[in-house]
Every structure is written in C-alpha cells, then in structure tokens.
Write a structure and sequence with these properties.
387 residues; eight-stranded mixed beta sheet; globular; single chain; alpha+beta
Length: 387
C-alpha cells in the first residue's frame, strides 16, 4: 500500500487536507481511530466562525454545498466592548466584504467533510484504524497498523490535534504555555434579534463572546479563569442563563439554554518547526492560539491551502522533499506568528488590573474605532482576504 501522502487524523483540518491533496492528483490515505457519526438534530455546542478564505477552500473541495444552509449564520458586524469606555465596531460593509464570517456547527462541518472524503476516488479512508509504529525515512516512511496492514508513503501529515502523537513520534518540540483558563461554551435561545451581529466583551473575569446562530439563537464562548469556569459549569440552568445575560449587558434579552455548558482548557503552543523531511504538521498539531479572535480552525485551513499548493507545484520532487516542505513552512510562519502575537498580547493587556493599563487599552480601542482604514485592514487580515 503505497501513497504520496498519509494523513493521520480525520478532524476538520485533517479531512480537508486529505481532500485538497486528492483533488490535486495525489494518492492519499487518511487514518482515523474513530469515524464521525451523523449529527443529531440538536445544536452542537462546538461552534466555529469560518472566514471567507476558509469558506473558499471548502467550496473548492465540494464541501460547502453539502452544508444545510438553514444551519448557517452570516456575521455582518461585530461589536467589541472594553472593560471601561472602550468600544470598537467591525462592519463587513464598511470593510468592503460581504460578511465577516459564517457561524456553523463543528459536527455538521465534520460530517460534510467526511461524506466528501468517502466519495473521493484517490483517497483511501482507513477507519477505524490505529498506528502501531511509524518508521520515518527518505524517500519513504513506513507505517504499521495495529491490524497488521503496512503502508509506505512519501509524506506523513500529522493532523491529529493538540496532543499530536505524530508530532511526538517525529521528535518535534512544542513550547506549551497554559493560560490557566477554560473556554466555557453553551448555546442559548434569545428574546432579541441579533441581526447577524457578534458581540465580545473584555471583562475583568475573562473574554465573553456571543456568536449569532440562525433564528433567535446564539452561541457563547467565555474564556475565563479555571475557577470561574468551573463555577459556571456548576450553575443550574436558570442561574447560568441569568449570569450570561447580565454579563452580556442583556443585549439579546432573556436567555434559555439549548445545550449544556461544556469547557476546554486554553493554552498557547509554538513550534520552532512544523516540517521535517517526510513529515508535516497541520492545524492544532502545528500551533495553538487563544480563542478570543476565533481563528484557530482558520489557521488550520490556511495550512491545508498552503501545503496542497506547494505539493501541487513540486515538479519531479517527492512529496516529502525537504525543500518543498520548507517553502510551505516559510509561507505559514508569518500568518501563524502574527495571530499568536495578537491574541496573546490582547490576553495579556486585558489581564492587567492597574488603572493606567485600563485607561490605555480602552482609549486605544476607541481610537481604532475612529480610524476606518485601520479597521478595514484589521478585518481583511482576520478574514484572510488578500487583494
């Protein structure tokens, strides 16, 4: 069983990566221990804000058209509030774009990707399957599966998440820094109409985001200290709804819980390198950012777009050629580092409790709000739009 590339992990980024490489004529295998299940009618508590650039990638892969349009919500505006008088409004129309992002459910996007992968000609899905051993080498690496099958590939792609097994096996060193925070998520029915507006508050107890869902619904992400996060998880339904509504200045009226609150730990992760001869990391296996900008999965889709383009233009070189992979790594270094720096610095800035820092950050936010050219550039950078 010989392939140009083997993708380990069939999450959102891994499946998109396998599809993108197959679309460019590569023979690809994708290994996943647990295949996804068809989503239930209930709303998924894990929500993503998909940028226009990521949407374009998913459209090119034949995935976007598989999504149920009634479960998609465009974001036309975002209102951001500081912990003082600072206010910032980001508007798609003012920035010359149709929308800032599209809100969708993780499970439904995963299912659409999976269905597209199952119908791909040059993509072999090995699932459920587990890897017993990888022997990295040049020009091919060899993978031994638990069921006795063996694979040879020019390139191993680690798309197996933040605790990547491939990353560890290949000897990549990750610098991990815990934010000592939890990202608490839940979905709510609302009384008021959100009109496609996302809200974000920088508070003394963390960063609270409300993302619009179709109809009179919204999804919450509250990035907050671990103790406060556990407190939120322990609240009964009426108390949680009242607490979240009050924290959001009652912008959408009375809230009713649609999905139970859940939480995940937040951390920053940096790697000195994301590629070695014959191996590449993508998505959460390659980097981690604070979710306050909602750009984690979009960075992963950016990895996919770049890697697929470089491999398609490799000429006679093998897919694991270090020169091809190094060019891809250079292309991704700046956008990833820039997003990590922005989110990390914003987190640090609003974590400071002294009066001077509070005055400066709120004044800076209000100043930016009066600079339309700077706001437009900020929006287009975050949305992955290039002229």
């Amino acid at each position: 069983m010989r392939y140009h590339a083997v993708v380990v992990g069939a999450g959102l980024v891994g499946t998109a990566c396998a599809l993108a490489l197959e679309q460019r004529g590569l023979q690809v295998a994708m290994i996943e221990s647990r295949p996804p299940s068809e989503p239930a009618p209930d709303w998924d508590s894990r929500i993503y804000a998909i940028s226009p650039a990521s949407q374009s990638l998913l459209e090119s892969l034949g995935v976007w058209g598989r999504m149920d349009s009634s479960r998609l919500q465009a974001v036309y505006r975002m209102d951001v509030f500081g912990d003082g008088a600072g206010v910032l409004r980001l508007d798609a129309y003012d920035s010359g774009t149709g929308r800032l992002a599209t809100i969708l459910e993780s499970g439904r996007l995963q299912w659409a990707l999976w269905q597209a992968a199952r119908q791909s000609i040059n993509l072999e899905i090995l699932s459920p399957a587990a890897i017993r051993e990888i022997r990295f080498g040049q020009p091919v690496s060899r993978l031994a599966l638990e069921d006795g099958r063996e694979l040879e590939t020019e390139l191993v792609i680690g798309a197996d998440g933040r605790d990547s097994w491939v990353r560890a096996q290949a000897g990549f060193q990750a610098l991990l820094e815990s934010y000592a925070q939890l990202g608490v998520v839940a979905n709510f029915a609302v009384d008021g109409r959100h009109q496609g507006t996302a809200f974000q508050w920088f508070r003394n107890d963390g960063v609270l985001a409300w993302l619009p869902l179709p109809g009179e619904r919204m999804s919450m992400v509250w990035s907050t200290a671990e103790a406060h996060g556990r407190e939120l998880l322990a609240l009964d339904e009426p108390t949680l709804c009242a607490r979240v509504a009050k924290a959001g200045q009652n912008r959408l009226g009375t809230l009713s819980l649609l999905t139970p609150a859940a939480a995940f730990p937040l951390r920053l992760m940096k790697l000195a390198e994301i590629c070695k001869p014959g191996v590449a990391l993508v998505g959460d296996a390659a980097h981690g950012v604070h979710p306050l900008a909602g750009q984690g999965v979009n960075l992963g889709f950016g990895d996919v777009d770049s890697l697929a383009a470089h491999l398609a233009n490799r000429g006679r070189a093998g897919c694991g050629d270090v020169r091809i992979l190094a060019a891809h790594a250079r292309a991704r270094a700046e956008p990833v580092a820039r997003m990590q720096a922005v989110t990390d610095n914003l987190h640090d800035l609003f974590a400071r409790t002294d009066k001077l820092s509070g005055t400066l950050r709120n004044a800076g936010m209000s100043l930016l709000n009066r600079l339309p050219v700077a706001k437009s550039a900020l929006v287009r950078e975050a949305m992955g739009i290039t002229d």
